[in-house]
Amino acid sequence: MTTMTADGLLTREDAAQAAAETPKHEGGAHSLTQDAALLKPVLETTWRFWAMAAVLLMIGAFGVYAYLFQFKYGLGVTGLNRPVYWGVYITNFVFFIGISHAGTLISAILRIAKAEWRRAITRSAEVITVMVIIFGVGSILIDMGRPDRLLNIIPVIKFGRFQSPLLWDVCSVTCYLFGSTTYLFLPLIPDIAILRDRTTGVRHALYRTLALGWKGSPRQHRILEVLISIMAVIVIPIAVSVHTVVSFVFAMTIQPMWHTAIFGPFFVCGAIFSGIAALILAMALIRKVYHLENYLKQIHFSYLGLLLLIMALLWFYFMVCEYLVTFYGGEPAHMAVLWDKIRGPFAPAFWTMVVCCFVIPLTILSNRKWRTVTGTVMASIPVVIGMWLERWTIVVPSLSNPRLAGTHAHYFPTWVEWGIFAGESALFILAYMCFTKLFPIVSIWEIQEGRELAVKEVSERVHSYLPSDEPERQEAAS
Amino acid sequence: MNETEHAKARPRWGMVIDLDRCDACQGCTTACQTENNIPPPTPQSAAQDRSIRWMELLPNVEGEYPRVKLRLIPRPCMHCDKPPCIKVCPVGATAIGAEGIIAQVYARCIGCRYCTTACPYTARYFNWYPPRWPEQLSQSLNPDVSVRPRGVVEKCSFCHHRLQKARDKAAAEKRELRPGEYLPACVEACPTKAMFFGDLDDPRSEVAQLARSPRSFRLLEDLGTEPKVFYLREGE
Predict the structure, then answer these.
(1) Distance from C-alpha of A296 to C-alpha of A161, rounded to nearest angstrom
(2) Which of A294, A319, A335, B128 is 20 to 30 A from A182 (CA-CA)?
(3) Among A77, A84, A85, A91, the residue to mutate for chain B (most B Cβ within 10 A)
(4) For position A84, which CATH number holds?
(5) Are the beta carbons of A253 and B88 separated by less than 8 Å?
(6) For A186, what's the count of Cα atoms within 13 Å in the CB-facing half-sphere?
(7) Is B46 part of a structural domain of the chain?
(8) Which of A98, A77, A97 lies closest to A87 in space, CA to CA?
(9) Peptide bond into B66 cis (omega under 30)
């Protein structure tokens, strides 16, 4: 890792020296004519954007209205009951936090692995994380019977207790939000500086503040790259911990089919799975709407499609493990839930999930010819739907089959719950769209860096993998 | 439960319900609703599975038609010695008292309903709506029990307020609390005298002796929650 960074720094300084004669921003301006398409969405807005924003805002407003309705009349306006105390909101919490694994985790892994094809996609992935976490946390707040007592969960000052897995969630998700925001912001700085130099008025003031005095000097680049590598390493364990403790909310209870050790890794796997699908959808939309076919290429979708295929197989493996172990053990309390999912009232949701999360992506993505933009999108839409259904068939069937209740529960969400879900989704997409209007959704400087430095660096790296003719050089390299 | 253990001062309150004597009249449920200011179930709340019954009759079907036997088992909060609900509460709104009673702090509860999903007995209830009583009942609430607001969790308290009252009375009369002085409303109301209440750690107490009976069992005993509500199996 260190040697690799050192290599990178050397190359960077060489390049800086080489470019020393020509002033830096002139070089930047030159390249920008090449990458003007990336700045275009930020600087120009069509009526289509406003139309789309208006539609999303209306759906979002409906969601806000639904929540205010619930705030006024209480959780009685939902379809929840005893014993199904948790429903759509908790499903959404797990689902949204899962989607958030698209960004930071994938981006960080690709960065650390020095996967050069990452350059065009990391930004759009990281933004998903930051935007969607907010709605994940929001889902928990929406689920609270007494949102006015939210601050009670603060430890030390108020009554927060670390014995409760919910407090683990609070800590982990807070770390994740701050970590991934930092991780999104750091690689954004050079691009903000580009925008600062090209805007006036309020926007200029905003970009000037956010650019933190970025001049693009070799020293600044060095610091930035060190910080990005540190953050990339830090956010991975945080991201893994986030969905592990989300699963612990269920697994730590002794309820049938919740109390299993497989939930931690299974949830992380499902999170990355749904995250990649969401990323593919976001990229396909960006590519089409902003005409970035030259940046978000077929090859990106093909690679992400491969990753999605791997995650689909891994997801299926975990599912078979979980269900086979439960089935073979045959404990009555667990079997009641299992039968409810396989052939009971939850069978439609369960089998749709299996088709959406496994059959469809496997069919499409295992065929190389179909790993195109359209193909991966066709695989990703069912994955996102299927993963929501997976969270649903985790939360509701277990609660519907308590060991002792004396009632046979039927839960179906009301318009309030659907309305809030629609509103959250719409506001997430709207927030994402607004981001693309404020900042370049494809990292300009990283594309430039790829063009100017990485090609050379990668060919050198490949050479260093090969057996060397000169023993001295080999030693120096190691 | 030997003599040395009994030497400690604090009692460990527990209940025994003799299913041989219980005829499922629901007198305990009614007494509990009145005593604890529980809003009476309405057709709507029943249809939505949202009625609150701290003491509920749990249907237990044994066998298959035509040899079927239906038992109705009165189920209060089990007041487990190892309660799964307390572990998961993020704000400490539910806690086990020194005498083993699981308390609920209504003023602190944030209504996340984690305890309700963690309780394997589903003995915890949520206030989906603000509590409402029919006109005739609203003037006769029990002043010793607080009315719960919308959005918090509640459950059987073993009529903890009765313990406080009995303690106060004993203290005023400068004497120890006498056995049988503190009884939850359900125990007191049971017309067939099927319910017993007292200190499980006092080997001479009726509950401690009954709890050791060969007929005695507890609900979901294998989960390790150590409930303090014992049942006596029907004879035959």
Answers:
(1) 46
(2) A294
(3) A85
(4) 1.20.1630.10
(5) yes
(6) 21
(7) no
(8) A77
(9) yes
| Tally of helices (H runs) and strands (E runs) in chain A | 21, 0
Whether A465 maps to a domain, the answer reads no
Range of the structural domain that residue B110 is part of: 3-40+53-232
Assigned domain for A467 exists:
no
The structural domain count of chain B equals: 1
The identity of residue A461, as a single letter, is R
What does each of the 236 residues of chain B score in pLDDT, given as a tens digit?
444 444 457 899 999 999 999 999 999 999 999 999 999 999 999 889 999 999 999 988 888 888 988 889 999 999 999 999 999 999 999 999 999 999 999 999 999 999 999 999 999 999 999 999 998 888 889 999 999 999 999 999 999 999 999 999 999 999 988 888 999 999 999 999 999 999 999 999 999 999 999 999 999 999 999 999 999 998 76
Q: Which residue of B has its CA nearest to A79?
A: B48
Q: Nearest CA to CA, how far is A278 from chain B (Å)?
A: 29
CA distance A80 to chain B (A): 8
Give the pLDDT score at A470.
Answer: 66
| Residue A297 CB neighbours (<10 A) | 15
The number of domains in chain A is 1
Domain that holds residue A87: 38-453
pTM (predicted TM-score) = 0.90
Interhelix angle A165-185/A103-112, rounded to 10 degrees, is 60
B118 vs A328: CA distance, rounded Å: 25
Looking up residue B180, the CATH number of its domain turns out to be 3.30.70.20
Inspect the interface and report whether the beta carbons of B84 and A254 lie closer than 8 Å: yes
In a domain, A18, yes or no: no
In this complex, which of B48, B118, B121 lies closest to A81 when CB atoms are compared?
B48
Per-residue pLDDT tens for A103-132? 888 888 888 888 888 888 999 999 999 999
